[in-house]
Amino acid sequence: MDWIEKERNLIAQVYRRQNVILERGEGCYLYDINGRRYLDLVSGIACVSIGHSHPDFIEKVCGQLKKLVHVSNLYYTIPQIALAEKLRDITGMDKFFFCNSGTEAVEASLKFARKATGRKKFVAFKNAFHGRTMGALSVTYKEKFRKPFEPLLEHVEFAEYNRVEDLEKKVDFETSAVILELIQGEAGVFPADRDFVKAIFELKEKYGFLVIFDEVQTGFGRTGKWFAKEHYGFQPDIMAMAKAMASGFPIGCSAMSDEVAKKLEKGDHGSTFGGNPLACTASLATIEIIEKYKLVENAEKMGDYFMKRLRELFEDVRGKGLMIGVRVENAEEIVKKALEMGLLLNATSEENLRIVPPLIIRKEEVDLAIEILTALTKNR
Ligand SMILES: *Cc1c(COP(=O)(O)O)cnc(C)c1O
């Protein structure tokens, strides 16, 4: 029985997959159906920050699984409220809306911005990625993702990232919100300049629009801070979160200020699954593990070490914490060869590798990754 051939016949062919069937994971390692081990520098796209099969996570999630999975938002459940309280502490935001993915978190954020301001226009940035549903796709830049699905949302403009002069031309009194990633992830790990972020907030003062941070990929310790916004010292009006929020269990969240929240009315938005007790318990467990094992600090420390070692091999290494981009000539080939050598890597384009390992990674695993990458770049 050939599973890969079955996949071709059964699954919508929208994904480009690596030639491996993964079966289980432990810590920073994954195992395929033949029991072969791989060092995971992908973490399910920056999701499984606590590593695979973390015992504390399994215990908490299984406990909730046995009690209650889902009742809908027609009722109150404690894990949702407890999670909101925890998120308030680590984000400094005031109120929270729960959904099930990054794109939904962005979708909710855009709706809340329009409702709160009564304005239509959104300004996003070139090379931004915010998701694939029609609203989120409308603020996503890549032509290939957008074109077949037009018409998308009207009143969206794209400004040059890190170029204040261009942004100044695109915002005005009609602007509802400016949405940005503080470190562009899918684009290949490109951080925003401090002065650029500062200028966005000066323009916000002048025109009264809202600022939406999309921290879907940068959140929950990935960059060596709980959220990338701490590197910049600015608080957004709305913030989208997902990916690492529950270690791969589907959940997303749009967090907002009280000013935004007070403009929302019953029925303005909703989600059947959003914030169910199982997903919220998975998220709470994740946050507790990140705190208990000091994974934010480890992301900073190991990120610095990883980038230092990568610079021995590559000229252009970018990033913050354990969100790292590396410019290469032949990304696809490197990814394929690394897989054969027991290392999982991700290419965001033919010229760029994205390295986002679990935040539990230790020096010895970084050294192993560098050893494999050294062998692989020398064999060419
Ligand atoms: C991954 C990502 C999204 C979309 O998240 P999904 O869960 O795939 O819908 C949105 N914004 C950013 C910055 C992302 O990295």
Automatic annotation (TrEMBL):
TM segment ranges: none
Involved pathway(s): Amino-acid biosynthesis; L-arginine biosynthesis; N(2)-acetyl-L-ornithine from L-glutamate: step 4/4
Co-factor remark: Binds 1 pyridoxal phosphate per subunit.
Binding site for N(2)-acetyl-L-ornithine: R132, S271
Residues the record lists as binding pyridoxal 5'-phosphate: G102, T103, F129, D214, E215, V216, Q217, T272
Enzyme Commission number(s): 2.6.1.11
Recorded superkingdom: Archaea
SUPFAM superfamilies, sorted: PLP-dependent transferases (SSF53383)
Pfam families recorded: Aminotran_3
The protein's assembly and partners: Homodimer.
Family matches, as HAMAP family: ArgD_aminotrans_3
PANTHER family, A to Z: ACETYLORNITHINE AMINOTRANSFERASE, MITOCHONDRIAL, AMINOTRANSFERASE CLASS III
Protein name: Acetylornithine aminotransferase
Organism: Archaeoglobus fulgidus
Gene transcribed to yield this protein: argD
